[in-house]
Amino acid sequence: MGLHNSGKGKVTIAGAGPGDPGLITVKAKTALESADVVLYDNLVNAEILDWAPVHAERIYVGKKPYQRSVGQETINQLLHFHALRGRHVVRLKGGDPFVFGRGAEEAQYLMKLGIEVDVAPGITSGIAAATYAGIPLTHRDHSQRVVFLTGHSKAGLELQEDFLRVFDGTIVVYMGLKNLGQIARQLIEWERAPDTPAAVIENGTMNNQRVITGKLEEIAGLAAEASLQSPALVVIGEVAALRDSLNWFEPARIIANQTQP
Ligand code: SAH
């Protein structure tokens, strides 16, 4: 297992999904089952790692927000190093590896060096956390489009005024908790109604998921009051109000917990 006919290694860049272990693809799970080495991130559920063979080396390379951690160059070099030794390396990343995840940068680095790369997409938290909060990103009566933004990029917060002034659909913000006050103020300045429904989802899809909802103008204060922490996803738009009638996950979770011995 894990050794390739050519004797050459390969790297599978795989999405682990947003947290709930059921939300991984068959492709990613199959790759894990034949892994010799797994490099995994902070946001990867530990249960998923158990699918790798016992002999597989597990290397934690997580980046916690706003903390020093294993640098990207070191991660790239580790991937290269193990692939060169003929191993099947699985690079397991939270959600989807190509959505705000640097999976593309890692793939580019390896491909330039002639390493075989395979990619297993994942369910991104922007979709799954919203769904588990009872928020559909589009709905025929409320929103016909959706945009995924980051609240924290290389250059800090980079909101695009000309786009956001006219965009009337659902806004999903990754890494948006820290700058939420600024994001909300900016959108209101750019003529989003202050009473637009909004939600913040902490630990989406997991058993400790927490969600707060409120108006755009008050959402940052509410999130701070509830001391919501990373990972958290922000959803802004009419659809956030649908949680009131569509919160399927949390009641089911309570019943599941109650029936456990
Ligand atoms: N590639 C990942 C995103 C990585 S950026 C994906 O596709 O989901 C990290 C950000 O993703 C976090 O700051 C948070 O905004 C979001 N995130 C990841 N997992 C989450 C979860 N379980 N619940 C809520 N937000 C999550």
Q: What is the name of the CATH class of the largest domain?
A: Alpha Beta
Strand content: 15-25%
Structural class comes to: alpha/beta
Q: Might you state the CATH topology name of the largest domain?
A: Methyltransferase, Cobalt-precorrin-4 Transmethylase, Domain 2
- Low-confidence spans: 1-5
How much helical structure, as a percent, in the residues? 25-40%
The largest β sheet comes out as: 5 strands, parallel
Spatial strand order of the main sheet: 3-2-4-1-5
CATH homologous superfamily (4th level) name of the largest domain: Tetrapyrrole methylase, C-terminal domain
- Shape designation: globular
| Distinct small molecules | S-adenosyl-L-homocysteine
What is the count of structural domains?
2
How many alpha or pi helices? 10
CATH architecture of the largest domain: 2-Layer Sandwich
> How many beta-strand segments?
10
Mean pLDDT: 93
Q: H/E element string?
A: EHEHEHEHEHEHEHEEHEHH
Query: End-to-end span in angstroms?
Result: 39 Å
Please compute the radius of gyration using only Cα atoms: 20 Å
